[in-house]
């Protein structure tokens, strides 16, 4: 057993009772939890804040108050927990991957967010925000989407609650994720193309913000990641904390300890924030974030301000935001959530960029060894594990399998060709 | 924060101009839009502008509608940078006898470094700055640098701002208070609706700083109506659309002269 596992085991008795208390910011015995509330002005260290036009300030303040109120309301929590259980299918299982572990020499566990309703972790956040919109008396929700997963989840929650829904999507993404566009329309949402700039996720966020500034009195902006102005980075992390809280308990049941490393892909960073935050009181567990090489805000960016927040941002020498370019539409974002910027700066989490090629190898490897086709986004996290398999030998790694790959099959089929990437896999 | 000694040069100029009931006209030009943009700037001054707003284009202008977005992207596509705009302005500063107000998004300022940005803006003859994505809560990131350089920071007021926020805004805004006519992004509207007049009256009731209303203004008649309860108007998209459609500096300035005439009819 590693030191991390031993120390986790020692404290597991006292901590295990608190695991269900999602949102509790209190530390364990002597452990400061880095995933506590941000400061009053929404800062994680120097990052975050609220860089929005005056017209949106009242809405941000109102949203923060409404979320604090709802999050402290047992009735709201019970309704959300009920939906997560009976509608979304939580808790999602943890799968112990015997064949993959043997191939890698690393024990790999997968947190199966791909098995949630709508096929990814995104449903956790949107169910919370849709209930919050209803509580605030806003009958219309808008969202941005990259791969379409957040858009599909938002359209789903809006259908469930009878809300009007408009989703902005870059027209490049509408083409490469045509099936998700159809899903959203089938669910009753209107999909509007974002056709300026790079015509991907960044531009979809711009369009959603322009809509919100025009419609803020009746509309809730259901932001899909741990980004944007305060309270979104904090609120969205809290709504995804259930991933990490469940996973920690499941690991303790399965391993009798915490995993040595928790790995997640990072675009804006919502699934990573969700699973990382469950391990805030497990200081022996390393937190790894896998960025796409074409959208590596931590590794290729510098601090900047866009979309309401200060964070790491890929930009040119003048401050013009660069266009991300990744195989995965869901990670095609030049920034990163401000809490991740803070975790990177303090060293609590480590972020690395993985290439499209490594991602495709990881995608094929998981399909062939475990019978699980991951989302290209989630394959980034696996790729980071595969890259470091020698250093990880004998250790236990929990990978957040944030989504399933059905949506990516057509795109990957074009790349792999008729032999379905027979030569792809471990190198 | 120390209280400035009195109105800065931008505000003093606008106060002088409004004496006697003149309505203030602040046209906008996207810096670096084309090779003739400073000719347009000078032509607009000659046509009766009381100050000119100069946009420094940003890749992700979330407060701007289709016209200013297109103008910004066109300027960026021809290699326009904050430095090239300031260099162009230095070349014409001596011929421009009204204050210039830079409008940009905060990342360009932050990337340069607020102190350096402020110093270079002043050196190019800029008197004030509008940063639509920096609300009062985040002004600490910019205001000290702006004040040290003698730049006046213009704050935006929204129809949704509470009375309490409007009072704080008016206290803190320098040069003028920029009233946003509507809920939405920049761009011409057939009508800006009733919110503009309500906000203008709320602002005029609590401040003596010039109140200039913007967003959505498409013609002289609208400009006159919007300016009536305030001290003036900003007109941006209606001018930039003409330029994007091929109008040269003289033709675009003719439209500015029409706006001037409509405001002067009162």
- The CATH topology of the domain at 22-154 and 217-265 in chain B is what? TIM Barrel
Overall residue-averaged pLDDT value of chain A? 92
Note the main sheet of chain A: 6 strands, mixed
End-to-end Cα distance of chain A: 28 Å
Largest sheet of chain B: 8 strands, parallel, barrel
Number of E strands of chain B = 8
- Which CATH class of the domain at 22-154 and 217-265 in chain B? Alpha Beta
- Number of DSSP E strands of chain A: 14
**Major interchain interface with per-chain residue totals:** A-B, 37 and 41 residues
Q: Indicate the multimeric state.
A: heterodimer
- Backbone shape of chain B: globular
Radius of gyration of chain A: 20 Å
Question: In terms of per-residue confidence, which ranges of chain A show pLDDT below 50 for 5 or more consecutive residues?
Answer: 1-29
Q: What's the CATH topology label of the domain at 91-120 and 240-423 in chain A?
A: Rossmann fold
Apparent shape of chain A: globular
From the 3D coordinates, which CATH architecture of the domain at 91-120 and 240-423 in chain A would you assign? 3-Layer(aba) Sandwich
Helix content class of chain B: 40-55%
What's the name of the CATH homologous superfamily of the domain at 22-154 and 217-265 in chain B?
A: Aldolase class I
- CATH architecture level-2 label of the domain at 22-154 and 217-265 in chain B: Alpha-Beta Barrel
Describe the structure.
The complex is a heterodimer of chains A (427) and B (266). In chain A, the strands form 3 sheets. Chain A has a 6-stranded mixed sheet, with helices on both faces. In chain A, strands 1-2-12-11 form a 4-stranded antiparallel sheet. A 4-stranded parallel sheet of chain A has the order 7-6-5-8, with helices on both faces. Chain A is built from 16 helices and 14 strands. The N terminus of chain A is likely disordered. In chain A, 62% of the residues are buried. Chain A has 427 residues and is an alpha/beta fold. Chain B has a domain of 182 residues: Alpha-Beta Barrel (TIM Barrel). In chain B, 46% of the residues lie in helices and 14% in strands. Chain B has 12 helices and 8 strands. The longest helix of chain B is centred in the C-terminal third of the chain and has 17 residues. Chain B is globular, with a radius of gyration of 17 Å. At the A-B interface, strand 2, helix 2, helix 9, strand 11 and strand 12 of A face helix 3, helix 5 and strand 5 of B.
